[in-house]
Design a protein that fits this description.
single chain, alpha+beta, five-stranded antiparallel β-sheet, 3 helices, globular, disordered C terminus
Protein backbone atom coordinates (compact mmCIF):
# COMPACT_ATOMS: atom_id res chain seq x y z
CA UNK A 1 0.00 0.00 0.00
CA UNK A 2 1.11 3.57 -0.67
CA UNK A 3 0.35 6.73 1.31
CA UNK A 4 -2.14 7.77 -1.40
CA UNK A 5 -3.93 4.42 -1.01
CA UNK A 6 -4.30 4.97 2.73
CA UNK A 7 -5.79 8.43 2.18
CA UNK A 8 -8.13 7.08 -0.51
CA UNK A 9 -9.29 4.07 1.54
CA UNK A 10 -9.96 6.32 4.52
CA UNK A 11 -12.09 8.47 2.24
CA UNK A 12 -14.10 5.46 1.08
CA UNK A 13 -14.70 4.67 4.77
CA UNK A 14 -16.05 8.18 5.39
CA UNK A 15 -12.97 9.88 6.85
CA UNK A 16 -11.24 12.81 5.26
CA UNK A 17 -7.47 13.11 5.69
CA UNK A 18 -5.29 16.10 4.95
CA UNK A 19 -1.51 16.06 5.38
CA UNK A 20 0.37 19.35 5.23
CA UNK A 21 4.09 20.00 5.11
CA UNK A 22 5.04 23.52 6.09
CA UNK A 23 8.45 24.52 4.86
CA UNK A 24 8.82 27.55 7.08
CA UNK A 25 8.51 25.87 10.45
CA UNK A 26 11.70 24.56 12.04
CA UNK A 27 9.82 21.91 14.02
CA UNK A 28 6.42 20.27 13.80
CA UNK A 29 6.41 20.75 10.03
CA UNK A 30 3.87 17.97 9.39
CA UNK A 31 0.22 18.70 10.15
CA UNK A 32 -2.33 15.88 10.27
CA UNK A 33 -6.01 16.71 9.90
CA UNK A 34 -8.68 14.02 10.12
CA UNK A 35 -12.40 14.59 9.90
CA UNK A 36 -15.33 12.21 9.97
CA UNK A 37 -18.47 14.25 9.23
CA UNK A 38 -20.93 11.52 10.25
CA UNK A 39 -19.75 11.86 13.87
CA UNK A 40 -18.75 15.53 13.76
CA UNK A 41 -15.23 14.25 14.50
CA UNK A 42 -12.21 16.47 13.89
CA UNK A 43 -8.58 15.88 14.82
CA UNK A 44 -5.52 18.08 14.24
CA UNK A 45 -1.94 17.64 15.34
CA UNK A 46 1.47 18.97 14.33
CA UNK A 47 4.42 16.57 14.45
CA UNK A 48 8.05 16.37 13.36
CA UNK A 49 8.24 13.12 11.39
CA UNK A 50 6.26 11.09 8.87
CA UNK A 51 6.30 8.00 11.10
CA UNK A 52 4.45 10.06 13.71
CA UNK A 53 1.93 11.05 11.03
CA UNK A 54 1.34 7.38 10.19
CA UNK A 55 0.97 6.46 13.87
CA UNK A 56 -1.64 9.17 14.36
CA UNK A 57 -3.57 8.08 11.28
CA UNK A 58 -3.60 4.46 12.41
CA UNK A 59 -4.58 5.26 16.01
CA UNK A 60 -7.27 7.84 15.31
CA UNK A 61 -8.89 6.10 12.33
CA UNK A 62 -9.11 2.82 14.26
CA UNK A 63 -11.30 4.60 16.85
CA UNK A 64 -13.91 5.44 14.22
CA UNK A 65 -16.75 3.15 13.15
CA UNK A 66 -16.00 0.92 10.21
CA UNK A 67 -13.68 -1.79 9.00
CA UNK A 68 -10.10 -0.62 9.36
CA UNK A 69 -8.13 -3.90 9.23
CA UNK A 70 -6.04 -2.54 6.36
CA UNK A 71 -4.60 0.20 8.59
CA UNK A 72 -1.73 -2.04 9.67
CA UNK A 73 -0.66 -2.79 6.10
CA UNK A 74 2.89 -1.75 5.30
CA UNK A 75 3.23 1.64 3.62
CA UNK A 76 5.82 0.95 0.96
CA UNK A 77 6.50 4.53 -0.12
CA UNK A 78 6.51 6.24 3.29
CA UNK A 79 10.18 7.30 3.22
CA UNK A 80 10.06 8.42 -0.42
CA UNK A 81 6.81 10.31 0.25
CA UNK A 82 8.40 12.13 3.20
CA UNK A 83 11.62 12.90 1.34
CA UNK A 84 9.75 14.36 -1.63
CA UNK A 85 7.50 16.64 0.41
CA UNK A 86 10.15 17.62 2.93
CA UNK A 87 12.39 18.69 0.03
CA UNK A 88 9.58 20.87 -1.32
CA UNK A 89 9.20 22.27 2.19
CA UNK A 90 12.90 23.08 2.41
CA UNK A 91 12.44 25.14 -0.75
CA UNK A 92 9.72 27.16 0.96
CA UNK A 93 6.57 25.45 -0.27
CA UNK A 94 3.54 24.67 1.83
CA UNK A 95 2.03 21.52 0.36
CA UNK A 96 -1.30 19.88 1.20
CA UNK A 97 -1.98 16.27 0.24
CA UNK A 98 -5.52 14.98 0.57
CA UNK A 99 -8.01 12.80 -1.25
CA UNK A 100 -8.02 15.17 -4.21
CA UNK A 101 -4.25 15.01 -4.72
CA UNK A 102 -1.50 17.54 -4.04
CA UNK A 103 -1.84 21.31 -3.80
CA UNK A 104 1.08 23.67 -3.39
CA UNK A 105 -0.29 26.60 -1.46
CA UNK A 106 2.65 28.97 -1.54
CA UNK A 107 5.53 27.83 -3.67
CA UNK A 108 8.95 29.42 -3.59
CA UNK A 109 10.29 30.62 -6.93
CA UNK A 110 12.30 27.45 -7.53
CA UNK A 111 9.59 24.94 -6.60
CA UNK A 112 8.21 23.33 -9.76
Amino acid sequence: MKVADLVELAGFAGASIMLKIDGERATHRWTVLISYPDLDFRYRRDVNRIDQVLGILRNELAKLPGEWSWLDDEIEDLDAFAEHYEELGRRGAIVVVDGTGERTLRPAADVP
